[in-house]
Amino acid sequence: MHMNITADKTGAAHSATATAIDVRDLRKTFRGPHGATVTAVDGIDLTIGAGEVVAFLGPNGAGKTTTIDMILGLTTPASGTIRVFDRTPEQAAREGRVAAVMQSGGLLPDFTVEETVRIIAATFGATDEIQDVMGRADIAGIAGRKVSKCSGGEQQRLKFALALLPDPDLIVLDEPTAGMDVESRRAFWSTMRADAGQGRTVLFATHYLEEADDFADRIVMVAGGRVVADGTTAEIRAQASGRVVSAVLTAEEIERVRTAVPEITDIDIRGGRAFFASGDSDTVARYLFTATDAHDVEIAAQNLEDAFVALTHPSEDKEILR
Ligand SMILES: Nc1ncnc2c1ncn2[C@@H]1O[C@H](COP(=O)(O)OP(=O)(O)OP(=O)(O)O)[C@@H](O)[C@H]1O
């Protein structure tokens, strides 16, 4: 799998393609309550290269799970196309090139961890891999534990072990750490980091910015069924790299600052303060101090969290000056 030429389950050699996932103008609607139409995915375009580790980042209801289900071939799009390693999602899954770790469910509570791995290994003809994947997913120490007695984090690591069994080229994880405490989340990702991202393509959905930032090479932000930002983690950071100068001042003065300082890119008013976003915080601060009665002036770096909120909740909790 970590080579350019791999053998599929029939033993035939094939060249690894450079593109793992190619999604064009993907759309999906559901029938909601009272017959209303819910647009879950509203024209997503996405190309993921082989070997990329991509975070699909967005708030609840953004359309992440619906998109992932279509990439896995579990549901069909209303329109648009999906290619996975230049195949249909169903073909790619059948060939064992794709494995998934889903949010919940899928495990039988009465089996032990090792029994679960053995059963799935048998279906893939991968019984030689059992000890190896249990080690890689860090579940060897709980091999004899019943699934029903495993914590949420342990169950997710077990699912990760199962996903490794077919030695897939692509692993898709849908919010694999949902509901875990911070420590379990860290443990899960450190296991993932040690194993994935070594030539394998990884697509994971999350609404934790920190996870996307820590683990992904690239962040695709989705909101309302659309891609709202797409770039390397560094690029997304750069988008948010300006500074914000905030101060308490009157509405008339805010208007005056806006006109007088063209370097200002955005103004929000929250909690009685005005927040001036700009690539030149010195000029903004100088103007506030010298030409207005602004007080309690603060200068802060805009962080990724701010960028995320701004991109995914454009009107939430803030009043934009017009
Ligand atoms: N089977 C369904 N029937 C009706 N509406 C659905 C169905 N599945 C999803 N939706 C709706 O589609 C939208 C997108 O949901 P989706 O689960 O894809 O979002 P998400 O980004 O994965 O959110 P979460 O982080 O909560 O899992 C939501 O408004 C959701 O209520």
TrEMBL record:
Stretches assigned to the ABC transporter domain: 21-249
Localization: Cell membrane
InterPro entries: AAA+_ATPase (IPR003593), ABC_transporter-like_ATP-bd (IPR003439), ABC_transporter-like_CS (IPR017871), ABC_transporter_ATP-binding (IPR050763), P-loop_NTPase (IPR027417)
GO CC annotation terms, alphabetical: plasma membrane
Main location: membrane
Keywords: Antibiotic resistance, ATP-binding, Nucleotide-binding, Transport
Gene Ontology terms for molecular function: ATP binding; ATP hydrolysis activity
SMART domains the record matches: AAA
Topology relative to the membrane: Peripheral membrane protein
One GO term (biological process): response to antibiotic
Entry protein name: ABC-2 type transport system ATP-binding protein
Organism whose genome encodes this protein: Williamsia sterculiae
